[in-house]
Write a sequence for this structure.
């Protein structure tokens, strides 16, 4: 698949209640998280879209980037990341959309490229990773690929008041990326280390280390 056929959506519209500050603006290793994630996906995507609560919320950050970025605002207000995915798929120029949460500072472009390679014939590609306690697997729908064919299912669930990101996956043809496939590229599952709390932020700073 040509990488130019992929749009990338950075989901930055959350309220960051547990962090207490807008996670997109946290500075890690010298750059805001939003800029860091955009920079990592830029070589893979033909366009970058950012889902935000306010159209001009990230103007200052986006000026740091050497590429045009479009901002989209949810049609379904206060409906969480599923509404952000809906807005991104609706606005995207390409059929296939890479959706990433803004609080994933260690996303691996090699893993993302592998997921794109697997997307042919599927509506979605979603990783399964070990849960924090290590006994079960959990889905990572905010580090995933979705086609425009997912829109009817997304709209149906949003109109029914079901805002869970995973709610649509049984309604579309989904390719689940298994842990053994991920570890070939990202053995430590660093790509999925997200930032929800001050403790997560401290851990991310330790992982980033000095330049």
């Amino acid at each position: 698949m040509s990488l130019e056929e992929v749009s990338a959506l950075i989901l930055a519209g959350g309220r960051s209640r547990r962090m207490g500050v807008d996670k997109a603006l946290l500075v890690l290793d010298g750059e805001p998280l939003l800029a860091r994630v955009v920079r990592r996906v830029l070589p893979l995507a033909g366009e970058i879209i950012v889902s935000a609560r306010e159209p001009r919320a990230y103007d200052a950050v986006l000026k740091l980037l050497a590429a045009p970025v479009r901002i989209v605002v949810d049609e379904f207000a206060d409906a969480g990341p599923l509404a952000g995915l809906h807005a991104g798929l609706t606005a995207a120029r390409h059929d296939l959309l890479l959706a990433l949460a803004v609080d994933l500072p260690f996303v691996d472009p090699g893993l993302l490229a592998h997921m794109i390679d697997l997307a042919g014939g599927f509506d979605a590609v979603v990783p399964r990773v070990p849960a924090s306690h290590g006994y079960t697997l959990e889905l990572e729908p905010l580090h995933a690929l979705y086609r425009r064919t997912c829109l009817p299912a997304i709209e149906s669930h949003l109109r029914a008041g079901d805002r869970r990101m995973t709610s649509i996956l049984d309604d579309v043809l989904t390719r689940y990326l298994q842990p053994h496939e991920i570890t070939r590229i990202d053995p430590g599952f660093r790509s999925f280390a997200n930032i929800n709390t001050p403790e997560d932020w401290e851990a991310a700073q330790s992982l980033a280390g000095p330049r």
In short: The chain has one domain: 3-208. The mean pLDDT is 89. The beta strands are 6-11, 27-28, 31-32, 47-51, 69-72, 96-101, 124-130, 137-139, 143-147, 174-177. The CA atoms of residues 28 and 205 lie 7 Å apart.
